[in-house]
Amino acid sequence: MAGVFSILKRLYFSIYNWVVFYGWAQVLYFAVKTIKESGPEHVYNTVEKPLFLAQSAAILEIVHSLIGLVRSPISATLPQISSRLFLIWGILYNFPEVRTSFLVSSLVISWSITEVIRYSFFGTKEMLGVTPSFLTWLRYSTFLVLYPSGITSEVGLIYLALPYIKSSEIYCLRMPNKWNFTFDSYYASLLALAIYVPGSPHMYTYMLGQRKRVLSKSKRE
Amino acid sequence: MKVSVVSRSGREVIKGGLELDDSATVADLQEAIHRKTKKYYPSRQRLTLPVQPGSKEKPVVLSSKKSINDYSDGNSNNLTVVFKDLGPQVSYRTLFFFEYLGPLVIYPIFYYFPVYQFFGFKGEHIKHPVQAYALYYWCFHYFKRILETFFVHRFSHATSPIANVFRNCAYYWTFGTYIAYHVNHPFYTPVSDIQMKIGFGFGLLCQVANFYCHILLKNLRSPDGTGGYQIPRGFLFNIVTCANYTTEIYQWLGFNVATQTVAGYVFLVVAALIMTEWALGKHRRLKKLFDGKDGRPKYPRRWVILPPFL
Fold it and tell me: Is the pLDDT of residue A166 over 80?
């Protein structure tokens, strides 16, 4: 019984990782193609569909972590995925005004390169049981540049959207009400920006530690 | 006795080691290290006995009250200790004082001063009696906490890393502001009079119970903090390990029943989660220590933190 389960699991993850890999590969391809042919302001329009599909599929990763199908702790997956979903659904989807910024290009390229490497890393691992060392190296090295570029793009886009968030009053809930509850998207976005201040060094040093651990281990093997 | 002080990577922290009396205490050792390395005052030093490479055991931490002789096995002329820098430290009393001072100062600002005009609410607004009682209740709570910090709490560690000042103050001060904003809001909707009275009444009862729990815990430790772990007994501790957390959680529940804000309930849930994690750790530690073997008492069957759930 356990054997069947582990084969099913491997099959599921192989399919999952390669399908999502394909989504992100499309995003990267369209982004680069559009920048070359039309310019950065048009990138959003061409990548919109595959971007939303590939990124939203990542909600499954929260489920995987919660039900224990993967080892990653929920404390690492949740903040990562929340910030991604906040950017695409909270910012880009709601505020077309920021879609033409070059930050969209830097965001999408940073994310898609990272994800193309990450999903092919896991896809190969699930399918073959091992990963080629160059893929491991890529996974634990490209973040050195892509985390700063990605985070800068995220913070930049949230910041650009702030005036539109404030004036649109989207999702805002005011008092008086029975539960004395308020929600203000503008202040929530400010809070999100504030979280990046301790959050980014935390994520970066976590990856640095992972890099040290994984790359030194594979050197010894 | 010659004491070698090495870092976890094997490097000698004090070249040539230190020469100490066999009767010297670990505290003396820490002083000696401090004299040689001005930066590392004693509370910043974590000294452990070396572990065998590959061993899964946790390293033995040297206790400052013990003699260095207690840690050298038979080979009494040499002792090797592993040094770790814990980073800049701040006393627990200082940490607690500042994290509690924020809520104590910030909340009344939202009650007494016309801050809501900065959020776009002009003009006078009516204050409900419950808002005044909430102010007194809240301030009493944090004032009590500060007094307990200075007169009741006996700390097992004297200090905490300085980074915790930022983390803890962010937690208390942000939540304090979040709740103060909502309870003192011009459009605040009070609950019924009876609900308010039940909430505050129950909350006050729990605060008194919580204070008594703190007194009981304090008496488990001797004044110089060498108590180590004891089985808590008496009052609610007979049925729940962390009765102090239990009463604290229920006390906030009372406040929220009386004031009814989502902000307050969010704080309650987060605080309860944090305390539950602490309680699980403490309960496990006590069960492991008091296993009933070698003449030690066996830790009795008790709830961890929130009967009847955990």
Answer: yes
